[in-house]
Write a structure and sequence with these properties.
- This protein has 88 residues and is an all-alpha fold.
- It has a domain of 39 residues.
- Helix content is 65%, strand content 0%.
- The chain is elongated.
- The N and C termini lie far apart (125 Å).
């Protein structure tokens, strides 16, 4: 056998030894999901978790705005009418 043939034969044999499992990634994700479910983790429902964070943030913003309004003295709205007082 020529050296090139031997080299190609070795390469093909090594390539056949290395296999790629397409289901491995799915299996890892499934195992991780099962662990989260066993712990009853809220991370399983990311939309619900995000909605809770959003609601908390909106509540905090509303409370800050209300506190800011209470700190400011109440001002009367400007009027377009001329004053009824006359200068003498």
């Amino acid at each position: 056998m020529c050296p090139v043939t031997i080299l190609l034969f070795c390469l093909l044999k090594n390539l056949q030894a290395v296999s790629f499992n397409l289901a491995a990634q799915h299996d890892k994700i499934e195992a991780f999901t099962r662990r989260l479910e066993a712990r009853r983790s809220p991370a399983i429902w990311p939309n619900t978790l995000a909605a809770k964070f959003k609601a908390d943030m909106q509540e905090k913003i509303r409370a800050e705005q209300k506190a800011k309004q209470q700190q400011q003295p109440q001002q009367l709205p400007p009027t377009d009418r001329k004053s009824n007082w006359t200068t003498v």
